[in-house]
Amino acid sequence: MATRAVPPRGASSRDVLHRGMVTDPEPGVDYTRALVDSSAGPGSGLVGLIGLLLGYAIVVPGLLYAFLGVGFFLERNPGEEFSAYYTRAAGFHTVGGLIATHLALASLIVVVLMLARYVNHRAPRWVASVQPGIRWRFGLIMALVAVVVLNLTQLLVRGGADTHVTVPRDWWIWLLAIIITSPFQAVAEELFFRGYLMNVISGLALSLPDKAGKCLSVIVSALIFALMHGTQNAWLFADRFAFGLIAGWLVIVTGGLEAGVATHVVNNLLAFGYAVFLGGVSKARGMTSMGWVDAAWDIGGFLAIALAGWWIGSLMRVARKTPSLIRPDLQC
To answer: Residues 255, 47, 15, CA angle at the centre, nearest 5°?
Structure first.
C-alpha cells in the first residue's frame, strides 16, 4: 500500500485547507474527538453540521424521489398516479419502496465520508474507529451477541399466543431486499448520528470540560436520532432515545462504531425480516406507538448488548483512544 505524506499535527488549519491535506487526530483522544481539530475553532464544526443536515434534508429526499421514479415504472398499478404510488411505496407497501428508502438513506455514508475528508481533513478510517480502521473481528462478535440477545427479547419474551404468522407469496423477494439493503441503511444512520454528529457536537463544546462535552455529544445526538423518527408515542420515543444513549456510550467505551453498527444492523434485519411474516413490512414501517413493557424489554436488550460489548472490548483490548504515534502504513 502506498503511503501519503501527512502533515505534522502542528500544521495550521489554513495550511491544511490550502493544500487539501489529510491529517491525523490529536493523540490520546476518544472517538468523539477523532474528527475534531481543536485549533480550528468552531468554524469547521458549524460547516460540518450544516453539510450533514443538508445531506439529510436534500440529498436523501432527492435520491428517494429519483429511486421511486424508477419503481413507479416497474411496479405501479394500472392507471395509478405517481403521487399515489409514492405514498404507497414510501410506506413500504411495495418492495421497491423499501429498496428505494434504504438506498436513499445509504447515501449518508458518502455524505459523512466526504465531510470528514474535505471539512475535517480525516481519512475514512478515522470515521470507523480510533485504531484507526474497521475492527472486523470485534464487529462480527458483536453481531453474534446481538443476534442471540435480540432474538431472546423478541421471541422468547414477547412472542405471545396471539402471534399470527402468514407466509406471503413473494416473501423471498422481501427477505432478499431486506438482507441486501437494510445493513446499508443501518450503517448510514450510525455514521450520521454516532459518527459525525457526535464529533461535531463535541467539537462545538470544546470550551466545556472533557466529560461534559462527551455527555453532551451523546445526549444531543440521541435526542436528534429519536426526534428524526417522526410520529411516535412517549414509550416509542423513550425506546429510541435510550438506544441512542446506549449506542453513544458504547462508541466511547469501545473507541469506534463497530458494536453500534452490528447491533443496529441485526436489529433492523430481525425487525423487518420477522415483519414479513407478521403482518407485513408496512406494519413495522408505520409503527407509531409502543407499550411500556415492550419498551422496557427493548431497552434491556440493548443495554445487555452494550455491557457485553464493553466487556468483550476490554478482553480484546480494543483501542479506546487515538494512538500517540501514527504508523506510516496508516497514513494513507
So the answer is: 85
